[in-house]
Amino acid sequence: MRQSQLFTKTSKTISQEEVSVNAQLLLRGGFIDKLFAGVYTMLPLGFRVLTKIETIIREEMNRVGGQEVLMPALNPKENWVVTGRWDTFDVLFKLTGSGDKEYALGASHEEVVTPLVQKFVFSYKDLPQAVYQMQTKFRNEARAKSGILRGREFRMKDLYSFHHNQQNLDEYYERMIEAYFRVYTRCGIREKTYLTFASGGTFSKYSHEYQTITEAGEDSIYICDTCNIAFNSEIIEDVNHACNQCQNKELREAKAIEVGNIFKLGTKYSAPFGFSYSDENNNQQPVIMGCYGIGSSRVMGTVVEIHHDEKGILWPEEIAPYSLHLVSLCQEPDHIQQAEVLYEQLVAKGIDVLFDDRPDVRAGEKFADSDLLGIPTRVVVSAKTLAQQSVEIKKRSSEDSDFKSIISFLAEV
Amino acid sequence: MRQSQLFTKTSKTISQEEVSVNAQLLLRGGFIDKLFAGVYTMLPLGFRVLTKIETIIREEMNRVGGQEVLMPALNPKENWVVTGRWDTFDVLFKLTGSGDKEYALGASHEEVVTPLVQKFVFSYKDLPQAVYQMQTKFRNEARAKSGILRGREFRMKDLYSFHHNQQNLDEYYERMIEAYFRVYTRCGIREKTYLTFASGGTFSKYSHEYQTITEAGEDSIYICDTCNIAFNSEIIEDVNHACNQCQNKELREAKAIEVGNIFKLGTKYSAPFGFSYSDENNNQQPVIMGCYGIGSSRVMGTVVEIHHDEKGILWPEEIAPYSLHLVSLCQEPDHIQQAEVLYEQLVAKGIDVLFDDRPDVRAGEKFADSDLLGIPTRVVVSAKTLAQQSVEIKKRSSEDSDFKSIISFLAEV
Question: Which ipTM did the prediction report?
């Protein structure tokens, strides 16, 4: 992509409305645009990051047998009445359509997925199943803040699993714990992310959250450094301020953001929909469910909170909008032409490259923009480098740069 | 994908509620599920088809310089008041959120994209631009019918272009006409699709629709077979029942479905938002806009209306849920094992293959399902074919099948 053609621009203005680092840097870099509080447009650079995060999640969900669908955002009121959540889910957007039909905007999809899977599952032979989607979700938050960490409209992956008994759910749940950690590893936030005990429900004492440590987080967690797990402050009394695995009482408190939540639902949703299956002896048994959510746009915001410095963002390799930022400082027609050829060669090699070909922007501004955008590797081509038939390569995460001949750069890239 | 693990099942039941062929076949095949009138879930097979259609559209929009974004579905009332459409857009879903804030659910995104692009475009040097998204749209239709041809919630690609003058828009519009035809060619509906003059607006006498001939269509068009263009019945009086290109009066009437619409908007949306740019002489000039829509889920339904027979769907190659349907009729453990090996070899080769490995389904039922699902190529492996170390290959579109040795099948696939 040629930066001269990108319709967005970077900005030096720090939004007065936004207090969060993720919103400030993502707005300044032209990754997102704010339509109103809690609702953002994903601009081309941000959409690329979001797509890469969602691709990682998709791959990991497919690895654990997830089947991808796309459920409607418009949910009939009836489905939410069945589970009792029409009146109790406090952030549900409600609206009325033609014929006075009432809808909820999907904030979570147990009310749709349960009767859906029920249509196809009759026997123990049809279980287990795992169904997921990558979708825009809506929540009528009273206060929207924290940039894309907590929005009124956001992107989320939600997977629902269906089992013939508790043991089968428990085994799948363990596989999902690992799948989620693979997602966070690939997104570059694994080291600061803890599997965290959180409040459960009727069918399980605890659920699990994935909490990433950051000052921007709204949650407080207590970390057991022996077991590398944590406890949400909401249950710290329940566990008597001690790790429930090793009884360690030296728990370390930290602020954190929830980047995922997995939950053993039991029959909470299958029961009200009357979703059962016939077992080997032809007896009807209740279907046991689990649910597993990751907010992909929230992960994007969390990455920015974790990976930035005073100059801008440092995107992890696998989710960076581009792998290479080719920055041309060339002024002479002959040099400009050589930079163009280099860009075309990189594109032909299938490299994801952003090419700063803007003719009327000073070097200092180009470097500042490059640091703000946070592409992992910057490659400068200039009169100085071309005199040596070379480019200057610098990692965003490092202060040092290296000169390398264009030939070996192209051979190794 | 192993068919034994797919959570959906085919059905022989023809829905009494659905009159359209696309809904009946897509429901029976397990491509979609109906949540309520006009609102469907995309099931795994349907989601694959939709994704392939959207990938084609994305590639063709990128080829004409489109930059992909994702705009919010929640639109503030204020934006729609600016253009006057809050009160005049008859199928707008409206809702109220916390703080009594009023929203529209995005039915089209001129009200969001215009002030968005305005934030980044100041000078003639910043133009032209083309911005698009692939998104779920909402329309509060009084009557929802025709399956996924006209829904209350549907998938759509909408692109908006921004120009410094009319000529620049006109040139881009011509490029887009060709881009759209490439989409329809790749989706297998080009031959029945006509560029059709339709009513325009304040800024252009006519807009253009792409109309695909089918009895399921809600529109009437008049085709000029000399020019291979058509006229929507809504403007046939305006053109005096004659082709406005060659004056041919022998126009052929047909029922058709609108699968795309492109429109020269002029300053209809830039004017109310005060979106102008400074020209070479530093004078402010109005930005000229165009918009270009394709309903990707509607294209999916149209393909089914065009490509089916009494047994089921015939998916065009490029948008089929899978390229190959490997159907095992094996009963003996040794044969089952050979079928498994063949499946694994196809997967390893990167072939999109659906493997009917269901152990307890009769051959006749497997063949009926295969015809219903409409994957372009069926490959049968059975005791009979394995006796010759071969497979039996049949195109969905043909009555004839061929035996081929497994070795040459694998070499050529």
Answer: 0.97
